[in-house]
Amino acid sequence: MVKNLHRAAFCLIAGALVVSSPVALAQPEKLKVSEEAVSTAYFTALPFRESPFADLRGVHPIMRAKAMAQNHFRFEYDGEGRPIRVTFLLGDTPRPLNDHTDNFFFQTPRVDIFYEEGRETRRFFDEHGNPAKMRGVFREVYELDHLGYRQRLTFYNSDGERIENSWGIAEYVWVIEKDGLVIEDHFNLAGEVVPKRPNLPFMRLRLHYGPAGWLAGAHGKLRDRERPRE
């Protein structure tokens, strides 16, 4: 699947964003981690991401001995190499994130990931292990295509009801073109196209990923009221 972004620099040129880079919800009691963790990796940082289309991924790997003495992100993986838990810790102690990451889509100390056929679900927790909100939502549900690429993302509250996140987005929709270009649109609960986020008024993004899965570029459109092809 497409990988996370490197930290990116943005510039606005003639209404376009240019980036240069180095469902029914299952009930909580039915959600189980796909497998016990079979491997663990440690990283000092998460890459900047402009879209939740990209995978959870760490950068700047370190050995466990070093991680025990500093803040780090711990990734636990299942037998298929998929992350099932990502935690921010000092040694073995979960820590509040504060300003330790500028990744827009990792804003709580712990994220648990659950996999079902055609679906990936993420739940969020604070440093004490209590359920927490990430940008105003308790749960994210991704719909996957037959190759495992993300097609849609919806948000839910603690009662399993669909909601908008703190940016006013209830749904992301992605369409992968034949040339690999990823088209991203965002909608509120009324089905209206809404901006990427409050201070970034693009209604549609075109995302270009390189061979290694890192974002190579993105272009934004200020107005695009058509719902994408499905």
Please, could you describe this protein's structure?
By secondary structure, the protein is mainly beta. It has one domain. The chain has one helix at 64-67, and strands at residues 9-13, 16-20, 39-45, 59-62, 71-77, 83-90, 93-94, 110-116, 119-125, 139-144, 150-156, 162-163, 171-176, 182-187, 204-209, 215-221. The strands form two sheets. Strands 3, 4, 5, 6, 7, 8, 9, 10, 11, 12, 13, 14, 15 and 16 form a 14-stranded antiparallel sheet that branches. Strand 15 (204-209) and strand 16 (215-221) form a beta hairpin. It is globular, with a radius of gyration of 17 Å.
Primary descriptors:
globular, 230 residues, mainly beta, two-stranded antiparallel sheet, 14-stranded antiparallel β-sheet, disordered N terminus, disordered C terminus
Count of helical regions = 1
- Mean pLDDT across all residues, rounded? 81
Helix content: under 10%
Largest sheet: 14 strands, antiparallel
Strand-pairing-aware structural class: mainly beta
Estimate the global geometry from the Cα principal axes: globular
- Give the ordered list of helices and strands: EEEEHEEEEEEEEEEEE
Residue windows where pLDDT falls under 50 for at least 5 positions: 2-31, 225-230
Distance between the termini: 19 Å
How many structural units, i.e. domains?
Answer: 1
The radius of gyration is 17 Å
Proportion in β-strands: 35-45%
Number of strands: 16
